[in-house]
Design brief:
- The structure is a single chain.
- Helix content is about 55%, strand content about 10%.
- The protein is of the alpha+beta class and about 325 residues long.
- The chain folds into 2 domains: about 80 residues, Glutaredoxin (3-Layer(aba) Sandwich), CATH 3.40.30.10; about 190 residues, no CATH class.
- A 5-stranded mixed sheet has the order 4-3-1-2-8, with helices on one face.
- The radius of gyration is 29 Å and the shape is elongated.
- It starts with a strand and ends with a strand.
- The relative contact order is 0.13.
Length: about 325
């Protein structure tokens, strides 16, 4: 039997006419009618409020104006193409329906999930120095190890808590603070030692993500909070703005630093500062989130409308 879905709402005369036309065709072309009130779900209302009635017949979608002949042709085509449907009560007990419900829940609350994930992602490295300070060296070491594949964790490019300074950049950065070399007595060219150094009572203890990574994810998280409030009014960031503000600064700062570390470009002699890493990283994070989140929101609204239509119908 062909499944027919009619998107409708109260006081819609065109919708009532379509329903009557479908009823008159029931004996000629048997079909299962599902009426969905778009006002029962915000996503459906946003998608269909300007175009109802909308009728889905098998693989075919009809939009107003819809004639009885249009319905008859589509019903026959769907029947002849053997597009059937299962009873909704059977669907409710199926794995597919349960999966659809999970996906619908995610589509409605995707921003909460992402913000929570980002918060935890930068929160765990921040907890590492707290654990060391409290004497829980084992759990702190586990956190440092977990984040080793995601970040270089060089001590002179990381933030420290509970110490004399929040950071200890190397002398080449030309920052008016105690340098990494002076504070630790270590050679900055010894990358393994810089990774392994987590701090001490005097200098404080290292956060498990470098300054730039912390700034990137903090920028994404901050934008996520702003987007949660202004999501209906925020449009996608223009590509040119994303490139000039989000990409160029971090490419110049990080790229110059990377090239200067190579013997072929040693003449550049550039070491970024904690401030520049934080600035360029946060711009990169905010601009990328601004570019992506409006499109994700649009996609999730479409997903909500599709799944709500599958799950919220009433069979007649």
């Amino acid at each position: 039997m062909v499944k027919v879905t009619l998107f409708t709402r109260e006081d819609c005369k065109l919708c009532d006419q379509v329903a009557e036309d479908l009823k008159s065709l029931q004996e000629q072309i048997p079909h299962q009618l599902v009426k969905i009130d778009i006002e029962s779900d915000p996503a459906l209302n946003q998608k269909y409020k300007e175009i109802i009635p909308v009728v889905e017949i098998g693989p075919y979608t009809l939009k107003a104006p819809i004639t009885a002949q249009d319905l008859q042709i589509s019903l026959r085509a769907a029947r002849d193409g053997q597009y059937g449907t299962k009873q909704i009560e059977d669907q409710k007990t199926s794995v597919a329906v349960r999966l659809n419900r999970y996906v619908l829940s995610f589509a409605r609350h995707w921003l909460v999930f992402i913000n929570l994930f980002i918060f935890l992602y930068i929160g765990l490295p921040g907890a590492a120095p707290l654990l060391v300070k409290a004497g829980a060296i084992g759990p702190a070491t586990v956190i440092y190890k977990i984040y080793t594949p995601m970040c270089h964790q060089l001590a002179y490019r990381s933030w420290f808590l509970f110490g004399e300074q929040p950071a200890y950049p190397i002398e080449a950065a030309n920052v008016s603070t105690i340098s990494y070399e002076e504070a630790t007595g270590l050679n900055p060219n010894d990358l393994e030692a810089a990774r392994d150094f987590i701090g001490n009572e005097r200098l404080g203890y290292k956060i498990g993500l470098c300054q730039r990574d912390i700034a990137i994810y903090a920028g994404i998280f901050l934008f996520g909070l702003i987007f949660a409030i202004l999501r209906k009014r925020m449009k996608p960031l223009p590509m040119l703005a994303w490139f000039l503000i989000g990409i160029v600064p971090i490419a110049l700062d990080g790229g110059s630093q990377l090239l200067s570390s190579l013997s072929l470009f040693s003449f550049l002699s550039w070491e970024s500062t904690p401030f520049l890493r934080t600035l360029t990283g946060s711009l990169f994070g905010v601009m990328n989130a601004w570019l992506a989140y409006p499109y994700i929101e649009e996609s999730m609204i479409e997903t909500q409308a599709l799944l709500s239509a599958k799950l919220a119908g009433v069979v007649e």
